[in-house]
Amino acid sequence: MIFTTPEFVLFALLFFAAWAALRGRARQWLLLGASYYFYGCWSWKFLTLLVGSTFLDYYVGRALERTDDPTKRKRLITISLIGNLGALGFFKYFNFFIDSAVTLIERMGFHADVHVLQIVLPVGISFYTFQTLSYALDVYRRQMKASHSLLDFALYVAFFPQLVAGPIERATHLLPQMVRLGREKLPVDWSGFAIIALGVFKKVVIADNIAPLVDMVYSDPDTAYAPAVWLATYAFAVQIYCDFSGYSDIAIGVSRLFGIELMQNFKAPYGADGPSDFWRRWHISLSTWLRDYLYIPLGGNRGGTWFIQRNLMLTMLLGGLWHGAAWNFVLWGFYQGLLLVLFRPRWLDGVRERLEAPRITRPVVVFLRRLAFFHLVCFGWALFRAENMHDCGVILQKMVDFTQWNVSGWLTEVAASGEGRYLAFTFAVVAGVVLLQMVWRAGTNELATRLWRAPAPLRFATLVALTYAGILFAPEQPPPFIYFQF
Description:
This protein has 486 residues and is mainly α.
């Protein structure tokens, strides 16, 4: 069930009608049943994994709270790690590692005849696994007390707005809200409608309508012109942002209608001026998860330069692998780690400060720095979007080899195909989104709050316009959100 389909609209209307008639724990049971139904619409079989993960970490948390024995506590957290990461590893990476091993063996000159299982990736498993695992780790570190209500904890894990694509919520933030949900009537934040409208606009009007250009180029990069590769890469940068942040916006907006506040997951990432700033703005729930549960335990910023660089590279390599079982995701993670390492030296901060010192040139320098880093981000998105390592090589070669820039041939082909207006529309949308973020580095939450504080006629007209645009430009078959595959 996808947020932008009529089926979800009907589901939401029926749910909120029942929600309004109930109070207290009855609301909790309704929400849990609706969340399980929402997830079960993809596959009832994989609902058992979600329930199993819930029971595992609930009882591990209770057991951790009852004992102070270090050996028992380590044994319990190991059970949680093996159970959660074992399920994630099997369903997401089993075939990947088998295929990679077979390829390596055959390149060494040996024959390998291996029958690979046809394993289907359960939707959202990467998200709810990290969410339940963070709870167990927080209880183990004594950063929070274990939940004493299985219903509260099950709601924390299965809360349907953010279940399948985040944000990856921490139990310290979301679980207390689930507890309050059963005890009191939480105040509804009606600005959720504004965030939902903005999220639907980003997904339906922008992401879904520039997706065909991206798919056309990246499905066959060998025959694509170099300018088309760059335009498709720019378009994908905007597509994946509007697609993923659009989901997060809708999840945050729907949650506000319950009185539940989810964390902000995006904050104008293309306004970043460096890799650290980018990861403070892009998929914030994942980047902070990797920081707190991987980078800092590895040693973080402690130790010498080499150890810090090692920690950065390992964190981003595993972050890349989290996104998908393919070598191009590993390469993308390596590239992101390399950016963090290269931008880390302090002398770069001194150069930046000297360049920005004159007040007259400061805005220009800041804008150019953000624009330059945006191109580095796009270079990484090319690795992310490529369908295999061969395509990675072809795309990167065309992006950096300016001898292949047959602009006249490309424009002639575009004119003959009649796609000129569509390409112009795509370029205008991409430029508009990116420039807006570079100038106004705020997230959708801030924009929605300002919209909701506007005079009622302006607020109403804006919501109607956003809704009408979503209906007018919606494709016949709404594609799933990109991060559903992760």
